[in-house]
């Protein structure tokens, strides 16, 4: 589903808060909940039921020893696997659900609960299972899928090394083919090449998908993946050494370890040979000739993990908001002068300012996540990258960039939101029972695992700058610098989608060149045009700076370093534009009525706080006058006051299971009814 | 020491980075360390030695059970007390050091180590001991000080209640005088009045200073403090009920509890009677007639705790920066095109942008903290509030406001800095051994305890708006609204210090009204003038808005709610101005040389990033052109590149004991030498 092509008609504005006909909406919580759940309501309900059934694990996380908690988490994962919840992304013939979108929806919903369970599921079914499915062929599927889907075989995804987390193309582990025995020899040449922080490896993992430099007949073919046994009957096999990573900030129910391989031999068939193979005689074969492209095609299978983590992070933020908003709706502090009763926190303007923009952004990201998850479903339900032509390949690159951007913004949003909500609950927010302890500690790594957010935003920017061209995968960041510097700046900008959109919108907007003066702040066309202008302008600026740096004779590394903050800002601006488009399009689809009014309040608040946050940039670039900038801040406050009466309904609609909101002192005991 | 009166001469500019004579400084780490330590170098070294001696507690925090860790923390606290470290703020006749500044310096330095030890020290010697010292008289000093200074008697500070954290004037606990027995009866009337999160109470506290509504002969006299026994021979005394708060996000070495009192009787002499007393016959007496002023005078003794927490937070941020900067100076990722070696993280422009402004702000806050700590020393070493006249009372109010602002900014800075540094260390930052786990979890509550940061900033704003007038203590936030609305806006602004300063500076600045166009970005006079203008303008805006709201007939609660975000922003702008003044003044004092050049780089970076962050506001208010705003961003990047070569020296100068930087994988093993 592409939302970009849906221009919003002026009729849609009638529902916005500045129209004369505006009346305060009444929110049907159940209807809004169904709207949020979307087509995957059923699987989300199954997960909610599973979470409620195993709610005791939230207490276990605090009370059990690390060793016991790891076992408990494993048990819950296996039990949940038994309900079919975790196998939705696998083919039916192996016991899966054959619905990738459902698999993402299930994973996202796990974000309401204990996140060790979530991450263990991610490692087992997403990373390990996903690699077997996507990188392997029938022999691997037949050998492993049924057992891993049921949780009988636990596995690891051994990519990251101590020396290389982000730059995985430079991994040090080797897999050398021995034609005499028809085996690969897996080896860790030095400590920098030890596999690091590998989930499931310290205790439970029996198998690992190991990423290593493939060497055949003295020639290196780059990073490939192989299935390597780690344990047999619970004992670590010869040649493998595993050390426990020990205590982490959070996610202590997941057993992370360091792994070293000392000349470990696996049969030739252990190579996951979807994209490349080695014949018994030792001839390397691949349908993808370019080694870089081959590597990035394999890496592309990681995209599902990023989509999943982004969605889970957004849902973790919902839990924090549900607690903080409900708390602020019952907690009073300091006396208002008139009636002698103390004032509810949620009636303070500052408290609204702290929570409601985050609430609005949570809704925005939810709908943006729906779009990326649907795209993932479509791309991965279609023909594989081997069979598909170039156009499909470009679709995959675009999906990867979109998933990267949404993951980065979604996970940073979770960190920020959980922190703000914790502080908004004062000292009570510090007590573990009230959930913020686990929410903070467990989500903290989301911003740097499954792709470091800054590195992911660079990936987004690379796509924009190169138009996802065929050279896309070949280029590291410095190659990208040279590539962009070699073409005209106008070319970079003109071929981007946003440029075309912006051109067509320029005519549509009221007032011609004066559009930013004339258009109503609550006109989604105005809001979108602002974000599109920013993106286009930033993109051109990056291209110009890169070109200038190379023209001045600087080396690409220095050029990149100097432009890097602009690169990151551009990627962020791009993703924020996509998020707003998704929200605007979803709201525009709705029938007129209170739900639409409520969502438009949130959509306006998201759009205007996004502009407000970056108002310095818009003023610097002549797209916002002082007066209008101040008007935006006033409008934001006004929107907050309009959201105040429906705020509790808006968080209730998230459908966080009552058992997941322990926080008895904060939200009034288990369950919604105790509060209302 | 007042820094505000020190106008910077144009000579000082010669050392700034835009002068033609600029050469990259070489940093003498030891000399810079001594400069940072200042006059309390000796006591800071004692604490460093104590921290190193008990370094094993960083591991114990992870490995011991909660019960065992609490005992361990208590033992370390008592051992440290034995070195004299924790008693610096008490009179010599009871075994103290009689140096309040030294007591603050010692506490701040504890911020490098385990923070449960820090907070337990804060509860025992700062809150409990401080209340006995400040609110009690000789009979209480004789009875308790010697034993509490040595740690033989452990005590609690029982103020906060479930229903009232910030608004402590509305506490529910009562202390009713029974003239027949000459006793006070301490009672918890309902669950909202239970004492909440009271440190030292779940296990160790034998005594508590309990804040309760004093009732004598049927008349209520507001909140007063009494010494109440909690335990005798380790057993909780009759009438007292204590529940363990259980697991918290961090600080699990401190035993927090909930306390209920059921008609507990204490002798008349238990009342801490420095500011008020009850005769045996039951007559209430106080030299301070106004009950509000009496209450806030008692509360004023809390100021030392706020100064201490702010300083500790700044030092915790130093630990995070020391780890992240050293890591980025040895960690390589992605290949630069030229030499085939991967690039150091610290050579990436974005990485510099993420860390160096935080490093600069840490230095700025360090010097601002020095100023507030010195003021605390001066005020509390002078005559007490009973003996002193009105002027001294106004000095106390100013100190309270300054301490509140610095505590708020310092603790938020710690939260932000630790988070950014964690992310900048990637997955390695998530492993508990690498320190960020404890740093994040333990400091998290700093923003909301010892005064919620938002409430503290409101206190700052109240002082500015009322000029710390005699009505200061009488006013709650709504009273403040009415007060301000009742006087001319000009009056509010004119009588503030910033207005006078700004007037005198206007003449001094080059270019008259065009000063913002003409002055050099690295001229501290320009930077200060910008922050002063912002503060003055915001303050006038708040006054105008409050007045308008009341004139329009809104009730004070609604008016306050609508203006609250401006109130908070004004207090923040005020405190940022004080911080910059402190930094500029300290740098200006230095002799010419490399240290001065280095500190000026940091001072410029702090000033310009502060302006850059709020550049939207400056442009809205006509004090920054687009071109100049962009120039500031370029200058910030340029300053970051200049700081790059000395960044490791700048964090080494903090003097974090090597044993406190566990993080072997990140910083290259224990000790500086392993890295350099």
UniProtKB/TrEMBL annotation, chains A, B:
Residues 300-465 form the Acyl-CoA oxidase C-alpha1 domain. Residues 1-22, 378-398 are annotated as: Disordered. One of its GO terms (molecular function) is acyl-CoA oxidase activity. Keywords: FAD, Fatty acid metabolism, Flavoprotein, Lipid metabolism, Oxidoreductase, Peroxisome. Belongs to the acyl-CoA oxidase family. SUPFAM superfamilies: Acyl-CoA dehydrogenase C-terminal domain-like, Acyl-CoA dehydrogenase NM domain-like. The keyword Lipid metabolism applies. This is acyl-CoA oxidase. Its EC number is 1.3.3.6. Residues 156-264 form the Acyl-CoA oxidase/dehydrogenase middle domain. Its cofactor is FAD. Residues 42-151 form the Acyl-CoA dehydrogenase/oxidase N-terminal domain. Residues 523-664 form the Acyl-CoA oxidase C-terminal domain. It is found in: Peroxisome. It comes from the Bacteria. It is an enzyme of class 1 (oxidoreductase). GO terms for biological process: fatty acid beta-oxidation using acyl-CoA oxidase; lipid homeostasis.
């Amino acid at each position: 589903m592409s939302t970009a092509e849906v221009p919003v008609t002026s009729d849609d504005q009638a529902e916005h808060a500045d129209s004369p006909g505006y009346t305060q909406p009444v929110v049907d919580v159940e209807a809004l909940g169904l709207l949020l759940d979307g087509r995957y309501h059923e699987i989300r309900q199954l997960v909610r039921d599973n979470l409620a059934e195993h709610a005791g694990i939230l207490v276990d996380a605090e009370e059990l020893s690390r060793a016991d908690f790891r076992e408990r988490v494993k048990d819950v994962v296996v039990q949940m696997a038994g309900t079919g919840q975790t196998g939705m992304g696998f083919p039916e013939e192996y016991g899966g659900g054959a619905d990738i979108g459902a698999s993402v929806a299930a994973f996202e919903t796990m974000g309401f609960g204990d996140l060790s369970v979530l991450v263990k599921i991610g490692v087992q079914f997403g990373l390990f299972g996903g690699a077997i499915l996507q990188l392997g062929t029938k022999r691997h599927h037949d050998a492993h899928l049924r057992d891993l889907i049921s949780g009988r075989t636990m596995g690891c995804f051994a990519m990251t090394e101590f020396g290389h987390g982000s730059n995985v193309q430079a991994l040090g582990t080797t897999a050398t083919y021995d034609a005499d025995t028809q085996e690969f020899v897996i080896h860790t040449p030095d400590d920098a090449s030890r596999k690091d922080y590998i989930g499931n490896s310290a205790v439970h993992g029996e198998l690992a998908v190991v990423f290593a430099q493939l060497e055949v007949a003295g020639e290196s073919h780059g990073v490939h993946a192989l299935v390597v046994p780690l344990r047999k009957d619970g004992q670590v096999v010869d040649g493998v050494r595993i050390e426990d990573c020990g205590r982490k900030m959070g996610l202590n129910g997941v057993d992370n370890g360091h792994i070293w391989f000392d000349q470990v031999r696996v049969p030739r068939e252990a190579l996951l040979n979807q994209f490349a193979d080695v014949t018994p005689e030792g001839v390397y074969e691949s349908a993808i000739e370019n080694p870089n492209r081959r590597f990035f095609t394999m890496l592309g299978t990681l995209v599902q993990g990023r989509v999943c983590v982004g969605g889970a992070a957004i849902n973790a933020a919902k839990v924090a908001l549900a607690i903080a908003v409900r708390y602020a709706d019952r907690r009073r502090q300091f006396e208002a002068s008139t009636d002698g009763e103390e004032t509810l926190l949620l009636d303070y303007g500052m408290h609204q300012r702290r929570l409601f923009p985050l609430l609005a952004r949570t809704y925005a990201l939810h709908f943006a996540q729906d779009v990326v998850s649907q795209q993932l479903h479509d791309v991965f339900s279609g023909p594989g990258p081997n069979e598909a032509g170039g156009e499909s390949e470009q679709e995959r690159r675009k999906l990867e960039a979109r998933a990267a951007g949404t993951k980065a913004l979604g996970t940073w949003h979770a960190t920020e939101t959980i922190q703000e909500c914790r502080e908004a609950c004062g000292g009570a927010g510090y007590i573990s029972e009230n959930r913020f302890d686990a929410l903070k500690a467990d989500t903290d790594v989301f911003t740097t695992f499954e792709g470091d957010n800054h590195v992911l935003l660079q990936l987004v920017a690379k796509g924009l700058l190169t138009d996802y061209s065929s050279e896309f995968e070949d280029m590291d960041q410095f190659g990208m610098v040279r590539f962009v510097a070699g073409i005209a700046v106008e070319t970079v900008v003109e071929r981007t989608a946003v440029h075309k959109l912006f051109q067509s919108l320029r005519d549509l907007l009221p007032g011609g060149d004066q559009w930013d003066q004339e258009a109503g702040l609550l006109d989604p066309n105005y809001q979108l045009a602002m974000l599109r202008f920013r993106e286009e302008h930033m993109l051109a600026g990056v291209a110009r700076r890169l070109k200038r740096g190379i023209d001045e004779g600087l080396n690409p590394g220095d050029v990149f370093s100097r432009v890097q903050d602009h690169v990151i800002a551009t990627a962020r601006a791009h993703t924020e534009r996509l998020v707003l488009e998704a929200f605007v399009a979803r709201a525009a689809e709705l029938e007129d009525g209170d739900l639409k009014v409520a969502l438009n309040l949130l959509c306006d608040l998201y759009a205007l706080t996004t502009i407000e946050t970056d108002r310095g940039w818009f003023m610097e670039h002549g797209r916002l006058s002082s007066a209008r900038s101040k008007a935006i801040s006033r409008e934001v406050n006004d929107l907050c006051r309009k959201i105040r009466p429906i705020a509790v309904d808006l968080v209730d609609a998230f459908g966080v299971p009552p058992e997941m909101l322990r926080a008895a002192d904060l939200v009034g005991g288990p369950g919604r009814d105790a509060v209302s």
